[in-house]
Design a protein that fits this description.
With 586 residues, the chain is of the alpha/beta class. The chain has 16 helices and 18 strands. The longest helix has 35 residues.
């Protein structure tokens, strides 16, 4: 062998050795549950069977102090962009947005053009990208997944829909359920089960791209456990009799289990919310009905976990599992609202019969009493800024260098996920410009130092993290939380809590810590000003706003004449009634 050939051979050998020593960029799977409470997952203290998600928790890190927004679209917008929802265009859920806010900066109800999704950044750097399930961050052509970084996509663009009949709306607030595949209107089957179908689609997309040689980013956005609560009967029947002791007993049991697992302090006090009924005061028939509601809720969660297991099994069979990072979270806390309060015509399409709950054509919710148990030991639920509405389970598993079965109590936020995924993939954050255009900078911090045991905090103790949604406000700073909730859940006043010792928000510290109380109010005012937060109109009610928006955005445009006639009759009737009352006073 001559000298030149020898040098070439040595160089090739060194290059091959270096390539072999360089780990492949990881695949990434993001699993987003809908409306799950803090202790709904078994690994967080719940009694619901979630063996596949629990297995991820044992392999990875559970984050016990992770925060999102209190409704779906704002959270998902921050998850995808790493940018605060008031800066990315989703300052509020469009269904509950006051008409005066709609279209204002930060209040588009969908992603604006000044943000770049993590999917786009991964796609531009060699990842194949796919999404199946709930999208809910805009259905404008420029906002569909094919324009937001996804190679393949099957998405439901709305806040929710029926889980058995894909084209059935649970609320008549849009002309149809907006399904899209790869940027075009999707042709959906007549019937399906949402969790199963979304995983089927994700697996199909993974198989189709398996020969590309690229790592993948897969996002599965489940509708479980969004209303209407629905699940296969085989899952529901497994929970028969499990909830006979009621919501207060369940709330206490979950509090104790979460403490045993090291997720909350052992002495965490429990607040009894004013919206929680007395279980003992219910009749036998009422108890039976309420039990069935929670049985359906638990079954829906277990069914979702079952299909997560199918996805994991596929990755094991394909050989991708060992090089895949999994992220599991819920988009907000448990749902307490009954949409029938806003849409009395709901019952023209659904039954509430006890023996039908969970089935096709049936509608049920968990209600505020069970929601307080699902969020245990936290206070509050979806739409509100209490910990029960904005603290949810987060599990990250499969990160190289991360120790298994760990609990991380550091304050973390949904805007931290995108920077974490980029660092995992070896991709630099884009700053405030991307491809020649100005963009909003990511607000979050990478969680890799926490995952690898290289740091104990993601956010500095003096860093203020602001939050607002539909008039419910919060600010986090170290262990302290400043919070204000609107009626009927709150009193419209500021309160101060130490989340390290009191995650249930039972001990108001504003008198003990007056300086911190005042300074954090100033911090919140600065956040609201810099992020363009708008004050809520006088008398704002989310329930009434849903009804108003349904009339303005759907009923009047699509049924103009009949609706105007009904409104005219109602107005005339109210005027006649007032005239009669005035005449009677005379």
């Amino acid at each position: 062998m001559n000298y030149r050939a020898l040098v070439l051979a040595i160089g090739l050998t060194a290059g091959i050795t270096a390539l072999a020593a360089t780990p492949a960029r990881p695949n990434i799977v993001v699993l987003v549950a809908d409306d799950w409470g803090f202790t709904d997952v078994g690994a967080f203290g719940g009694e619901i069977a979630t063996p596949n998600i629990d297995a991820l928790a044992r392999q990875g890190v559970r984050f016990s102090n992770f925060h999102v927004a209190a409704s779906c679209a704002p959270t998902r917008s921050m998850l995808l962009t790493g940018v605060d929802n008031h800066r990315n265009g989703v300052g509020n859920l469009i269904e509950t947005m006051p008409q005066a806010h709609l279209g204002q900066p930060g209040y588009l109800g969908s992603l604006n053009t000044r943000v770049v999704t993590v999917a786009t950044l991964l796609q531009d750097n060699g990842y194949r990208t796919l999404i199946a399930g709930k999208w809910n961050v805009g259905t404008e052509p420029y906002n569909l997944p094919d324009q937001r970084g996804f190679d393949r996509s099957l998405i439901q663009g709305d806040t929710g829909s029926d889980n058995w009949e894909p084209n059935q709306r649970y609320l008549p607030h849009t002309d149809r359920v907006h399904w899209y595949e790869d940027g075009k209107t999707a042709v959906m089957p007549a019937t399906y089960y949402s969790s199963e179908y979304f995983v089927d689609k994700a697996i199909g997309y993974l198989r189709a791209g398996a020969g590309s040689g690229k790592p993948f980013f897969a996002y599965v956005g489940f509708q479980a456990n969004h209303v209407p609560l629905q699940a296969p009967r085989s899952f529901i029947d497994k929970y028969k009799g499990r909830y006979k002791d009621g919501w207060t007993a369940l709330r206490q049991a979950r509090r104790d289990k979460a403490a045993e697992l090291g997720l909350t302090p052992k002495a965490t006090p429990l607040a009894t919310m004013g919206s929680t009924q007395s279980w003992d005061a219910l009749s036998a028939a009422d108890k039976q009905y309420q039990e069935r509601r929670m049985e359906v809720y638990a079954a829906m969660a277990e069914a979702m976990d079952f299909h997560v297991g199918r996805l994991i099994d596929h990755l094991k069979q394909s050989g991708d599992y060992d090089n895949t990072v999994f992220v599991f979270l819920s988009d907000n806390g448990p749902e307490a609202s009954d949409y029938a309060d806003a849409q009395p015509w709901l019952w023209t399409q659904y039954t509430q019969a006890l023996d039908k709950l969970g089935d096709k054509g049936a509608y049920t919710i968990m209600g505020p009493s069970w929601a307080s148990a699902a969020a245990s030991p936290l206070s509050g639920y979806k739409f509100y800024a209490g910990e029960g509405g904005i603290r949810t389970p987060l599990i990250i598993a499969g990160v190289p260098g991360s120790q298994p079965n760990q609990v991380q109590a550091s304050l973390t936020h949904v805007t931290d996920i995108a920077p974490t995924l980029l660092e995992l993939a070896g991709i630099a954050r884009p700053g405030n410009r991307y491809k020649g255009s100005e963009i909003e900078s990511m607000a979050g911090r990478s969680l890799l130092p926490l995952l690898r045991g290289e740091a104990q905090q993601a956010h500095a103790p003096n860093e203020a993290i602001g939050y607002e949604l539909a008039g419910n406000l919060a600010l986090f700073k170290g262990d302290l939380k400043l919070v204000q909730n609107m009626v009927p859940v709150g009193d419209g006043q500021w309160h101060l809590y130490d989340l390290r010792t009191d995650p249930g928000e039972t001990q108001d510290l504003q008198r003990q810590l007056p300086m911190q109380f005042a300074s954090m109010q100033r911090d919140y005012a600065a956040y609201a000003q810099s992020h363009g937060v708008l004050p809520m109109p006088e008398g704002y009610s989310p329930t009434w706003q849903v009804m108003i928006n349904s009339f303005v955005n759907y009923w009047i445009p699509f049924y103009r004449k009949p609706v105007l006639i009904v409104l005219a009759v109602l107005i005339a009737s109210l005027g006649l009634a007032q005239r009669r009352r005035r005449n009677q006073r005379r």
